[in-house]
Amino acid sequence: MAFRLTPKDSSFYDMFTASAENLVEATDVLGTFVHEHTRREELGRTLRDLEHKGDQATHAIFRQVNSSFVTPFDREDIYNLASDLDDVMDCIEAAADLVVLTKLGTLPAEMGQQVALLQRCAQVTAESMPRLRSMKDLSDYWIEVNRLENEADKLYRRLLSRLYSGEFDALEILKLKEVADQLEEAADAFEHVANVVETIAVKES
């Protein structure tokens, strides 16, 4: 039986889980934000708070990497996973901030569908993080996120097609496309998270 004088630091599992759960909360707030016009400034502030919380969690992971003698998997993968989780949060907060700053009113239904896909991505990501401890039953997670990201790509293209259909004026098209781009980038960032998890699982298998 192997004996370690310096056991691996297992605190990372809980830290990654907390970061992912923060994204579940953020996407749920965004789901409300998209539909409730009168609460957008308030909900935007909530998302800013969650973004700050996410930043703190990311920095805590970085500090833990730098202070740990033995990490549970490659340091580079820990950095990448933390950074990609943080990127999701940044895109979500940016999308909401753009809606508030540009004073957009009713948003296209496709944006609500984009957010629903992000909510699903957040849920499966948060459910998968504790499984990093055992490296078991993770393939379903990255397969599902890849599927969701493909759906998000198709939805984004449909939304662009609608934006350029003549239904919207030129200024509104610019505003809406900026928001749509951030939501699409959030979906991409969720896929990046899943790709890092797959990389870790392959290395540890």
Could you explain how this protein is built, in words?
The radius of gyration is 18 Å and the shape is globular. It is mostly helical. Residues 1-7 have low confidence and may be disordered. It contains six helices and no strands. Helix content is 78%, strand content 0%. It starts with 10 loop residues before the first helix and ends with a helix. The protein has helices spanning 11-35, 40-67, 75-101, 109-128, 139-163, 170-204.
Question: What percent strand?
Answer: under 5%
Radius of gyration: 18 Å
Structural class: mainly alpha
Secondary-structure element order, N to C: HHHHHH
Number of strands: 0
Major pleated sheet: none
**Shape annotation:** globular
Q: How large is the count of helical segments? A: 6
Q: Percent of residues in helical segments?
A: over 70%
Q: Low-confidence segments, ≥5 residues, pLDDT <50?
A: 1-7
What is the averaged pLDDT score?
Answer: 94
Distance between the termini: 19 Å
